[in-house]
Amino acid sequence: MDYKSLIMNGRSVRHFKETPVDTKALLELESYIKDCKKLDSSIVIEPKFFAGDDTYKRLYGIAGYQGVMIEAPNYLVLISEDKPQHLENAGYVGERAILKARDLGIDSCWVSYSDRDMVKKTLGLETDKEVVALIALGYGSKEVKVEHKAKTGDNYSKSNMSTANTGSERISLEEMVYIDKWGNAATSEILEERALLDAFSYARMAPSALNKQPWRFIVDGGKVVLAIDSEDYRGSYLNKIDAGIVMLYFGVILDVTMFDSKWGFDNLDKDYGIPANYTVVGYCNI
């Protein structure tokens, strides 16, 4: 897949045609999800597909923006073991599935929910695994260019989170990436010298809930440290999904331009001067 092109042409679609996704395409997407690179390959995560109309009616009031469900001809549900980093892994795998769907000509939209157990019960999923992602799939009903905008109170199913341009709505590289310690802004020239400019440029375009772009990076020699803006990261589903998505965007570009990326989650003892309202999520060796 041409990840750079897929990221650049990304859009979140909330209005779908009634046409179901081709069965062959769904089978290809299912196979891809099972075999694709994961953030943590030790976590068992499985795709489940559901037809649209009945699922839409069953989930109305349970999922979507303030219970207003996104109507689509098909839905992808990811279920996962409950282990450390399983939600970050869900964001990583879910967004990778979205990129693959886009490659197959399928539009998509993350759909949020507040009660994963209710989603699981409503869909009749008899498993000890946890629902970790709900994604609408189909074909957009109209060609609408989605820009980098989000209104307060929006979430994945409501926010405009396209990566189709790099306009002023996106934070700058200097705001997003630091060298050695917090506040020491990186420049494009420095990142280019370290062969990291591409990876950070595409990470900058990752979608996030409310378009908050909560991520910041510190380049420390051969290590890239990721921190997420959150006062209670451990209790935040959306922030963990966001973390997984940005780790994917950074990682897939490293995979195609330099080497196979690998994120680690061991505790880092070094003091980078990171503010108290940011949480170190992990690091990538480069």
Secondary-structure map with pairings?
Blueprint: H1 3-8, H2 23-35, E1 45-51, H3 52-59, E2 74-80, H4 86-103, E3 107-110, H5 116-122, E4 130-138, E5 148-149, E6 160-161, H6 173-176, E7 177-179, H7 188-193, H8 197-203, E8 215-220, E9 223-229, H9 237-257, E10 263-264, E11 278-285
Cofactor: FMN
GO molecular function, one term: oxidoreductase activity
Domain Putative nitroreductase TM1586: 6-164, 195-250
Report strand %. Answer: 15-25%
Give me the secondary-structure category. Answer: alpha+beta
Oligomer: single chain
Strand order of the largest sheet: 7-8-9-11-10
pLDDT below 50 for ≥5 consecutive residues: which ranges? 144-168
Topology order in helix (H) and strand (E) letters = HHEHEHEHEEEHEHHEEHEE
| Overall number of domains | 2
- CATH class of the largest domain equals Alpha Beta
Overall shape: it is globular
Known CATH architecture of the largest domain: 3-Layer(aba) Sandwich
**Overall average residue pLDDT:** 89
What CATH calls the topology of the largest domain is NADH Oxidase
- According to DSSP, the number of beta strands is 11
Helix content: 25-40%
